[in-house]
């Protein structure tokens, strides 16, 4: 690989006697991996459903080494049992340490690797707000969170400054996984090498400062802000942290106490190089010690009375008696909202919570995403297949299956839901969304 001369000079300065070892990494294949989605299954089920073996990575108990390519057609992928993720990318959420019941903002969230990891740690409790400024990427983010069965997320495509002004002081934890020069992507994405220049590094550092300034607004007093990049440049890492601390005396740097990687330069943050088992990451953690007032109002559009009962009856016709209480209608869509949700006006929200159904005339048609977010055993009707069953492969190609009985029926792989169909007359009419199907 042809690495830019200035990049090589900078890395030599950073790594001195380790520089040759670093360079020799470019002769080896990149690290790849999968991250277990514990919202949908346990490690044993995932291993049993994969046609390859995986081994633990040091960056998170959910992160494993294994192939990262050509996995998108596997039933376990469709069922959201895992996310294909380079292992060191899991480090930032380990440092963020989100807890069930908290309010967590992922400000630069697409395509959703870190958001789905946060969701797994939150166990569906509290609020995950996943924002992505580029709308086309926000749609991919939404699709990934739906595949992973995340129930308590709001997905938006808002400018960070506008979003964080609207949600000032609201969040317990905020993650800024910043757009960067991507030096830690060079082994995986040769285009990142072509786009690299010292000018781009400087431009990234400036943009990172702006995103961090916005993010700071959203953190409540005593809350945490985690900053991560997948690049090695000092300007974008320690430089960005030091500049932020100079501008924001209301924040303190917290020591990152983890076993993986190595200490950052001049500060108790963390750097990860390929010598440490990952492609490359930087993670720093701040805590807001200064006061911050929050004037965010709770969401006011919850269904009540007859409308609520109708929504609950529809839910009960698919999933039985554990009926949610928080429903709302956005346009033609019926949503089950997270237990915690602020007013969302003007924040370019693509989806809040889980879509239960779409209006068809005077009835609701169930949505793929609600089945995807429920375990097979929670659905009133389900059919279950082994990962290598020909029927499952046919379902994922959009074909009709043989099926007894009548009604909406979840289709599962080893007990994990991967879609649904409508049974009648001995057949299961396929409802797997066209855009998600495997090619015939
Ligand atoms: C490193 S990626 C995020 C990866 C994501 N956290 C994950 O784990 O899947 C950075 C994201 O920031 C977005 N971005 C680009 N410019 C931005 C800006 N000015 N403000 C906020 N986000 C921006 C990019 O579109 C990109 O999706």
Automatic annotation (TrEMBL):
Active-site positions on this chain: 230
Residues noted as binding S-adenosyl-L-methionine in the record, renumbered to the chain: 108-114, 132, 177
InterPro entries: Methyltr_RsmF_N, MeTrfase_RsmB-F_NOP2_cat, MeTrfase_RsmB-F_NOP2_dom, Nol1_Nop2_Fmu_2, RCMT, RsmB/NOL1/NOP2-like_CS, RsmF_methylt_CI, SAM-dependent_MTases_sf
GO biological process: methylation
PROSITE patterns: NOL1_NOP2_SUN, SAM_MT_RSMB_NOP
Residue intervals of the SAM-dependent MTase RsmB/NOP-type domain: 1-289
Keyword field: Cytoplasm, Methyltransferase, RNA-binding, S-adenosyl-L-methionine, Transferase
UniProt keyword Transport, yes or no: no
Molecular function in Gene Ontology: methyltransferase activity
A UniProt-annotated Pfam family: Methyltranf_PUA
Similarity annotation: Belongs to the class I-like SAM-binding methyltransferase superfamily. RsmB/NOP family.
Protein name as annotated: RsmB/NOP family class I SAM-dependent RNA methyltransferase
Organism: Neglectibacter timonensis
């Amino acid at each position: 690989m042809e690495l830019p001369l200035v990049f090589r000079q900078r890395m030599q300065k950073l790594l001195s006697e380790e520089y040759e070892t670093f360079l020799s990494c470019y002769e080896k294949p990149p690290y790849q991996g999968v991250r277990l989605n514990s919202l949908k299954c346990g490690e044993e089920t995932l291993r049993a459903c994969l046609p390859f073996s995986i081994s633990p990575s040091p960056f998170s108990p959910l992160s494993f080494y294994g192939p990262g390519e050509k996995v998108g057609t596997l039933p376990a992928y469709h069922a959201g049992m895992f996310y294909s993720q380079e292992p060191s990318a899991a480090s930032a959420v380990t440092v963020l340490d989100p807890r069930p019941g908290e309010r967590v903002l992922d400000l630069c969230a697409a395509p959703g690797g870190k958001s789905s990891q946060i969701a797994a740690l939150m166990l569906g409790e509290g609020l995950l707000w996943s924002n992505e400024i580029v709308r086309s990427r926000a749609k991919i983010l939404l699709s990934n969170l739906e595949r992973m069965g995340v129930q308590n997320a709001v997905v938006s495509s808002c400018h960070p400054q506008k979003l964080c002004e609207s949600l000032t002081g609201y969040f317990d934890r905020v993650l800024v996984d910043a757009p960067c020069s991507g030096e830690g992507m060079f082994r995986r994405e040769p285009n990142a090498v072509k786009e690299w220049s010292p000018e781009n590094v400087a431009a990234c550092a400036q943009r990172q400062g702006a995103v961090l300034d916005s993010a700071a607004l959203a953190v409540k007093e005593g809350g945490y802000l985690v900053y991560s990049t997948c690049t090695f440049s000092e300007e974008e890492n320690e430089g960005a942290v030091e500049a932020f601390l100079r501008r924001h005396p209301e924040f303190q740097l917290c020591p990152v106490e983890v076993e993986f990687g190595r200490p950052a330069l001049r500060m108790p943050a963390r750097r990860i190089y390929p010598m440490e088992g990952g492609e490359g990451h930087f993670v720093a953690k701040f805590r807001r010690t200064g006061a911050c007032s929050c004037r965010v109002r709770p969401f006011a559009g919850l269904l009540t009375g007859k409308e609520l009962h109708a929504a609950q009856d529809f839910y009960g016709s698919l999933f039985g008696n554990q009926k949610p209480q928080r429903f709302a209608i956005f346009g033609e869509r019926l949503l089950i909202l997270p237990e915690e949700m602020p007013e969302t006006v003007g924040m370019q929200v693509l989806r809040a919570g889980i879509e239960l159904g779409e209006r068809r005339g005077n009835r609701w048609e169930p949505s793929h995403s609600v089945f995807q977010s429920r375990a097979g055993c929670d659905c009133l009707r389900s059919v279950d297949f082994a990962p290598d069953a020909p029927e499952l492969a046919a379902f994922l190609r959009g074909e009709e299956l043989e099926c007894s009985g009548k009604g909406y029926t979840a289709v599962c792989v080893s007990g994990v839901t991967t879609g649904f169909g409508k049974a009648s007359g001995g057949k299961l009419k396929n409802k797997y969304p066209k855009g998600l199907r495997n090619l015939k």
